[in-house]
Write a structure and sequence with these properties.
By secondary structure, this protein is α/β, with parallel strands linked by helices. The protein contains 12 helices and 13 strands. It folds into 2 domains: 200 residues, NAD(P)-binding Rossmann-like Domain (Rossmann fold, 3-Layer(aba) Sandwich); 88 residues, Alpha-Beta Complex (UDP-galactose 4-epimerase, domain 1). Helix 5 runs parallel beside helix 6. The model has no long low-confidence stretch (mean pLDDT 91).
Length: 335
């Protein structure tokens, strides 16, 4: 990380937008271990670990409102953009608020940084893109060289925001880096509700409900624990010059069949509860299910790894065990 017109000895300022979310909470915890001034910004109050080297500021803001983004990033050396509409791809198809969050916040960020532009490199902006932006994946590991043909409104939003980031980088407004995320899972505490297919299946198993798949279980996803994703952001922050201006894929390099993952979840929950495993069954998909849900994805993240040295360190089975244990502890008596 580099300074932006700071007084000698002043801490670099790292602003995390979307700091109270699932990935945001993990990223916040990772940067809290560093000697920085860490500014956590989100609609809800963010939870910052009590121990760590960082000095912290916690702000609540609606980043879709005029002026809120500019205030949040004032004086920042590093901006980590993790804001995304909570409704996911379904909401993006019909909810106008989805674009305001997924694209509008980036528009306002670019405008704010353009207004404060000075001589020298702009602040580093790390953006959470999505591996699914390419649309239907090829029958080989994706590595970031594929053409982007997004299939859903959500992925079109993510791609539009990423293009704004790259354009602003070309104009020297910022040093933008897009980290396209795989299927992220895990648990970061009750202050940040988990999301995604793995947590959904674990909660169903804990409730004694069958685990349902829209296919025969052979469809695979590249699954990475949220703590490893957080470490990718810290790694990116240490290599701005090498990464700036491009998008980079994150992944474990595995295609984990979801049927096998669900059966593992079922067994882990059964062992914890002392009950028989819940069944894993196939069911008819909804009519609006995107075609990408029926294509396997494996990600080759070697370009990012070669620059940063990052790699996922949490084995899949260990990550599933940790997630099951955490979610089991949060169950209410009615479960």
């Amino acid at each position: 990380m580099t300074s932006q017109e700071r007084e000698p000895g002043a801490l670099p300022v790292v602003t995390v937008l979307g700091a109270s979310g699932f990935v945001g909470s993990a990223v916040l915890a990772a940067f809290a271990r560093r000697p920085v001034l860490l500014r956590a910004v989100a609609r809800r109050t963010s939870h910052v670990p009590a121990t760590g080297a960082a000095r912290t500021q916690v702000r609540t803001a609606d980043l879709t409102r005029a002026g809120q983004v500019a205030d949040a990033v004032a004086g920042a050396d590093v901006v980590i953009h993790l804001v995304t509409h909570s409704g996911g791809w379904r909401a993006a198809e019909s909810d106008p608020a989805s674009r305001a969050v997924n694209v509008g916040v980036m528009e306002m960020l670019c405008e704010a940084l353009s207004d404060r532009r000075r001589d020298g490199p702009g602040p580093l902006v790390l953006y959470a893109g999505a591996a699914s932006q390419i649309g239907l994946p090829p029958d080989r590991p994706v590595d970031g060289s594929e053409p982007d043909r997004p299939e859903t409104a959500y992925d079109r939003h993510k791609l539009a925001a990423e293009r704004l980031l790259k354009e602003a980088t070309a104009d020297s407004v910022m040093r933008g880096v897009s980290l396209r995320l795989p299927t992220v899972f895990g648990h970061v505490g009750e202050h940040a509700p988990d999301r995604g297919v793995v947590a959904f299946m674990i909660r169903r198993a804990l409730a004694g409900e069958p685990l349902t798949l829209w296919h025969d279980g052979t469809v695979a996803r590249d699954l990475v624990h949220v703590d490893d994703i957080a470490e990718a952001f810290t790694a990116a922050a240490d290599h701005p010059d090498e990464l700036s201006g491009n998008h980079w894929l994150l992944g474990a390099g595995r295609g984990d069949p979801l049927g096998a993952v669900c059966r593992t979840v079922s067994r882990l929950v059964a062992d914890r509860l002392g009950k028989p495993p819940v069944p894993v069954v196939s069911t008819a998909p909804p009519k609006d299910a995107p075609a990408t849900d029926f294509r396997s994805v494996t990600i080759d993240s070697s370009p990012f790894r070669s620059v940063t040295g990052w790699r996922p360190r949490t084995p899949l089975h260990t990550a599933l065990e940790r997630t099951v244990a955490a979610l089991a502890q949060t169950r209410t008596p009615s479960n």
